[in-house]
Amino acid sequence: MPRHPKQFLYAAIKLVYKSGMKKTASRNRFFERLDPSQQPLALFDLLPDVSFFVKDRRGRFMALNRRGCEYCGVVSEKAAIGKTDHDFFPKTRADTYREDDEQVMSSGEAIVNRIESAPEDAGSPRLVATSKIPLRDRRGRVIGVAGFSRQIERIQSGTADAMAEVIQYIHNHFTEALSSGELATMAGLSVSHFERRFRLAFGASPRQYLIRVRIENAATKLRSSDQSITAIALSCGFYDHAHFSRSFKNLMNMSPSAYRTKTQHVHETKRTERRRR
Hints:
Layout: H1 5-33, E1 50-56, E2 61-64, H2 66-72, H3 91-107, E3 111-117, E4 127-136, E5 142-152, H4 158-172, H5 180-187, H6 191-202, H7 206-224, H8 229-235, H9 241-252, H10 256-276
Antiparallel strand pairs: 1-2, 1-5, 3-4, 4-5
Helix pairs in contact: 4-5, 5-6, 7-10
């Protein structure tokens, strides 16, 4: 029985250390006993407003929950494994996701609850809070990234709340000639401050974001309607066919006609697969 205060302290530290080691060993044994079929990941399928993913160092999907599959436009996780964001999203958006992943993996630091637009392809005004962490192997080397995006209905904080209103307004009025001055007034900020805050929050200028919303709405019409490309361009806020085609190719990495042909083929393939089930 220790009598000196230092002896009592040492004994207490040793007891806590042994207790911690036992708990860690028990934890390790438990997870080693689990079937390697990623059972815990199945829990994320039960969260309807959360998109969860795991990617390897090269940006290839290694795991994806049901909501993530919906964002990527695939019917199952299997259809996404081994593919990257560039297989599912417009080039500029996929580039942004990849840059974020690289930042997390190179720095070893997480991105926590960053507010950004939802990764949807139908011009949705919804916002999500995104978090990402680096994944390490047993030797401590970063081998990938895991993350989730949680849909949020409202942001309760001054300027952020005003930004949410601006985003909603853009999505409701994307066919109109919106200016940064008009949007800045709505947010209660100067134009320069508004544009800085907007770019920080959404990774694009207000003008770039507006073009993206127009393109994504046009993409929906190309997939789901028989309207001419010129008619779709004018209905989505572009002043002529040539302007629309240039903007579409810059964002989607293909022409509107090529996109229509490709997506109609994909949808027909999916319909055939569903009939076979």
